[in-house]
Design brief:
Shape: globular
CATH superfamily of the largest domain: FAD/NAD(P)-binding domain
Distance between the termini: 59 Å
CATH architecture of the largest domain: 3-Layer(bba) Sandwich
Number of domains: 3
CATH class of the largest domain: Alpha Beta
Largest sheet: 8 strands, mixed
Length: 479
């Protein structure tokens, strides 16, 4: 019997697990995939938003501003790549200046600090590659860029070290309530818990309806992206947004924490977890982005991808305890700024559970920091010392990103182990470079096979069933 079961191991579920790990609570995270951060968390703009965009008084406004501040602290403690580079919301027409003024006022109401209006001259000084058609911009200095999957993994790993259990490859198929206990049926058996936190992303409405009346509907919405090589990573110094419209925050152009350039997304209705890309969607992204930064070289694109937003009609987060089923808490509608808001939401959800009867007694001691060896970032003396301690750090496996075998082995044996090629990629960046794993992928596969003592054919690219090896090319040999 668990005190709390969290359904979903994206940024929301991992944030909640991290906070629960601080208390003498028996908690479990149930995730249908073979790793944390496999869904929307790994496929988004990677922006920690400032909080000027949400409607004042909304849940999004409250948690965006609180989460922005908390993530600064978390990334420092947990050794997660993060840079506060600020954002520019750019106007190209005179009438858009009015919208910028509205956003600035909204930001003030929401508690966003130090926003400024930049004229054309200031804008060109700070962003030399901005379009000649840009006439004004609203500057929000508290906007940051982060590695979202690394943040979720860090939160999950620390939670695991503090006693939170993770059940991966475990899909919820039904939930029944008996007295004060929830019986969660899964493909791996029954899990019993006193409290359920539904953080199932695009499936949150379906999980809710296992137990409760239909109270909200998730309308999946897909966004497509370009990821460009590091040769394009210095084109802009800030996150560049266009003045928002009825389709949302619009197509952005931004550096990434790893030195690339990300461009996107568009906005289109989606079916469930459909993350396919299309010529139409990518053309829209490309043409729209060129309005902001005309000299983006899209020939330097190294990857296209898509992510799915868990939107609702009301365009706000739905965070509440069900009135008829005490202890069942929905954390849903986690579209943008969901990444920015999740850590702050987790703190309030703990308060909700405490008010509903969960005893929260702080542990005498917890693990609350994390340090990752990043060979590429070390000076020569520290590299030599690390290689002396572990010779595997002297073997470069991923040449694009300078990732060593030691880092890959460490990733495989972390508190939440990496069991796929992309799981290693999310933890230490192997395969994240220009060739996208074309050279290092097979070697990473071999290392996983060796370290986990499993057949090479059982190592997937990412999710379970995404096999790379399906059989021998000449079964039975030659005569």
């Amino acid at each position: 019997m668990y005190d709390v079961a969290i359904i979903g191991a994206g940024i929301t579920g991992c944030s909640l697990a991290y906070e629960l790990g601080k208390y003498n609570v028996k908690a479990v995270v149930i995730e249908k995939e073979n790793d944390v951060s496999v869904g929307t968390t790994k496929a988004n703009s990677a922006i920690i938003h400032g909080g000027y965009d949400p409607i004042p008084g909304s849940a999004m406004a409250k948690y965006n501003v609180e989460g922005n501040k908390y993530i600064h602290e978390l990334c420092a403690k947990l050794d997660v790549p993060f840079k506060e580079i600020g954002a520019l919301i750019v106007a190209f027409e005179e009438e858009e200046k009015v919208k910028l003024e509205e956003l600035q006022e909204r930001g003030k109401i929401n508690g966003v600090p130090s926003m400024e209006m930049w004229d054309q001259k200031k804008l060109r000084q700070e962003e030399p590659n901005i379009s000649d058609d840009a006439i004004q911009a609203l500057y929000s200095p508290n906007v940051g860029i982060v590695s979202p999957w690394e943040l979720a993994i860090a939160l999950g790993e620390v939670a695991a070290q503090n006693g939170v259990e993770f059940k991966l490859d475990t899909e919820v198929t039904d939930i029944k309530k008996e007295n004060d206990t929830y019986k969660i049926e899964t493909n791996e058996g029954t899990v019993e818990a006193k409290f359920i936190c539904n953080a199932a992303g695009v499936f949150a409405d379906k999980v809710n309806e296992y137990v409760n009346k239909k109270s909200f509907t998730i309308e999946p919405n897909k966004g497509e992206y370009y990821l460009l090589d590091k040769s394009q990573g210095t084109l802009v110094n800030h996150v560049i947004f266009q003045c928002p419209n009825q389709y949302g925050k619009g197509v952005l152009v931004s550096p990434t924490v790893h030195g690339n350039l990300i461009v996107g997304p568009d906005s289109q209705p989606s079916a469930g977890e459909d993350v396919s890309t299309s010529t139409q969607g990518l053309s829209f992204v490309r043409n729209t982005a060129l309005k902001s930064i005309p000299n983006i070289n899209f020939r330097e694109s190294i990857r296209n991808f898509a992510g799915v937003r868990a939107r609702t009609k009301e365009d706000d987060f739905f965070i509440f305890e069900d009135k008829e089923n005490k202890g069942f808490i929905n954390i849903s509608g986690m579209a943008s700024p969901g990444l920015s808001s999740a850590p702050a939401i987790a703190i309030d959800v703990l308060k909700m559970m405490e008010n509903s009867g969960l005893e929260l007694n702080a542990k005498d001691s917890i693990i609350d920091t994390r340090k990752i060896n990043r060979f590429k970032k070390l000076d020569e003396d520290k590299r030599a010392e690390l290689v002396k301690q572990n010779p595997l750090y002297g073997k470069i496996i991923c040449r694009c990103e300078t990732i060593t075998e030691g880092e890959i082995v460490d990733a495989i044996h972390r508190p939440i182990p990496a069991t796929s090629i992309d799981a290693v990629k999310r933890r230490c960046n192997a395969g994240m470079g220009r060739c996208q794993g074309g050279f290092c992928g097979p070697r990473v596969q071999e290392i996983i096979s060796r370290e986990l003592n499993i057949p090479l054919a059982d190592v997937p690219q990412d999710r379970k069933g995404m096999n790379i090896i399906t059989g021998e090319t000449k079964e039975g040999g030659t005569k």
